[in-house]
Amino acid sequence: MKAFPTHLFLMLLNAVSKLSWGALYKLSDIVRFLIFDIGQYRKKVVLQNMRNSFPEFSETKIHEIAAKFYRNFTDIIFETIKMKSVSKEDLLQRFDLETPLLMHYFEKKQNAVVVAGHLGNWEMLNLFASAKLPHQIVVVYHELQNDIFEDWFKNVRTRFGTEMVTMKEAISKAFEPRDRPFLFVLINDQSAVPEKAFWTRFLNQDTGVYRGVELIARRLNAPVLYMGILKNELRRGFYKAYFRPITETPKQEPTNSILQKQIGFLEEDIRRQPDNWLWTHKRWKHPRPAHLNPLQLLQEIPSE
To answer: Hey, which bits of the chain come out as E strands?
Structure first.
């Protein structure tokens, strides 16, 4: 009986996914008004995150950016629901993806590690990449606690062949043989465990960064690419993704340099489109432990 409301809700999501894009964005505007203007959902978190990140911005500008972010936030929700039933042809129209660097490695039969942040609609890009690229797309993700929702979202995410890998199995899955070159994709801007994190300055704040990207890259000894996702300012629901090389020889890089470059590239994109990042998360809830050097340049990461 407890599962009945969940199944009923998923039936609603399936029905919503079949609506036109125009109808979805009208719903998005209504939900944005309800959860942010009426419900005030995490508005204090969003505004404080922005104030700390952009101390040079006026309060008026902060609120202008926040208002744009709130619309982006609910758009992403409904765009992700749409992925349940979107056609491949429709999906392929909504992203502009730079592929030369990816194809360079694919033709050399090289795998690559791709690291990104919560920019644009990362969920839509996951589905788009598996529909567009010849690579095997392998995405590391956090499992949902509700098994029924987890199954629904996993089915959506894997519709066109993406392989989803949980955080706890990421390292072992990185070394499994596959029949074609793969892109091992990690989102790396969540709040990390303070004592295990790499600490640096990001958006004017001490920030802990997960080390898994560098650990996996060194063990695979695969090229590492930063992936940026920018929204089309003129067309709602359209995005561009591009890639910047971080290194082709991760084992030869100084410790933490891969993480430092990734977080630097991410900050550049956030400053370029400040409303395009996911501001509702409490990324700075943990202070840097007092005994740790701010950059931890001497702390080694094992390469084997």
So the answer is: 95-97, 112-116, 136-141, 163-166, 182-187, 198-202, 205-209, 224-231, 239-247
Alpha-carbon span 110 to 184, nearest angstrom: 11
pTM of the entire predicted model: 0.91
255, 240 Cβ separation under 8 angstroms: no
Instruction: Give the amino acid at 119.
Output: L
Burial of 291 per CB tally in 10 Å (0-12, 13-18, 19+): exposed
Count how many Cα atoms sit within 13 Å of the Cα of residue 92 in the half-sphere of its side chain. Answer: 8
The 8-class DSSP code of residue 188 comes to -
| pLDDT one digit per residue (tens) for the chain, 304 residues | 456 688 888 999 999 999 999 999 999 999 999 999 999 999 999 999 999 999 999 999 999 999 999 999 999 999 999 999 999 999 999 999 999 999 999 999 999 999 999 999 999 999 999 999 999 999 999 888 888 889 999 999 999 999 999 988 998 999 998 999 999 999 999 999 999 999 999 999 999 999 999 999 999 999 999 999 999 999 999 999 999 999 999 999 999 999 999 999 999 999 999 999 999 999 999 989 887 655 444 344 444 4
